[in-house]
Amino acid sequence: MAEMTRAPKGAVKNRKNKDPNRIRFLSVRGRVDMPMTVIILVLLVFGITMMFSAGHAQSYVDNDGDSFAYTVRQVTAAGIGLAGMVLLCFFDYRLLRREMSLFGGKVKFTLAHILLIATLLLNFMCIFGVEAEAGQKRWLQIPLFGTFQPSDFLKISLIIYLAYYIHKNSDNIRRFSVGIVKPGILFVIVAAIMLGIQSHLSGLLIMTAICAVMLFVGGINMKPIIPVAIAAIAVVIVMISLSGFTYFGDRVMYMDPLSEPGDRSYQNYQSALAIGSGGIWGKGFGNSTQKYYYLPFAVNDFVFSILCEEFGFVGGMVVILLFVIFVMRGFVIASHAEDRFGCLMATGITFHIGLQALLNIGVCLCCIPNTGISMPFFSYGGTALMLQLWEMGLLLSISKRAKLR
User: Fold this and answer.
1) What is the pTM of this model?
2) Eight-class DSSP state of 311
């Protein structure tokens, strides 16, 4: 009888292989969220199209008469980004929080730890990086490939690590030492690198906002937040003062486009002209005047201004609406995520893209100081576009296991 009731030899193994909760490197379980996929692709196509329109004149001058050079590079980056996005759709995101051991279990670490440490070191290397005219060192040079901003990598690794940290310490996250002190130490390290080495205030503000939102969603105790926030602001002000750069103060002082339209507020003034001249319906695709070297960095930070000039108020509102829909759908995915880690990571990714788009639009409208904030999916920059699409891959991977209707 014992032999008759004994399970077949491979039954346990087969049951294990079919376990839906087993963490695998790649998983085909579930379907990606189609509304989010459509929104991402619409933003990508619209963004590359507008980047070409805003930058073909600059590309012609910078690339020996080749008006399509920037577009080709951006499309190439988009192709690599899309390939990574598709791969990450099948990647089991829970692997990022899976703990591994060294020295007989005495040291435990995850891929989230590895990514954070690697990107912190990469950002620290900016001390030897390429220096801009105003003295900022935000870029590293890769032979044959050009420059890139390591801070783009740090944003993603921070989101992943904080999602793991809050998930791991969810039972004790309301304790001051767990919810405030330890993340605060990480904040000080990031602030020291962002301000002391890179002079990158906008990047620090974005990362700070992402961390604050993720900790809030994670359930930290809100009572000590006000004194901690005051202390954090004081630390940032001291770091800015010690940095010796007048870059930050100048950007705030000359935010008004009419303050010095022929000199320090020239860029803001030209951005306001571009948006205002577009009117309600715009001048038509490709008919911008400001992109012909009147508006500096039209292909990067001010592509939204050229968009409003060519498509008017209506076109600008369409793009804003697309980002609003993106954020709403991203938070829906986060709220229906299978686990706390996925919820927090989806929240961080969605908030990151939404906040950066909001700040870029604010800069173009002269409502926020111009500190080099690019527009997701629209601004020229191959590395940034690839990383944004890889972020979308992680978001869609979370959506595959989410309990969406």
Assistant:
1) 0.88
2) H
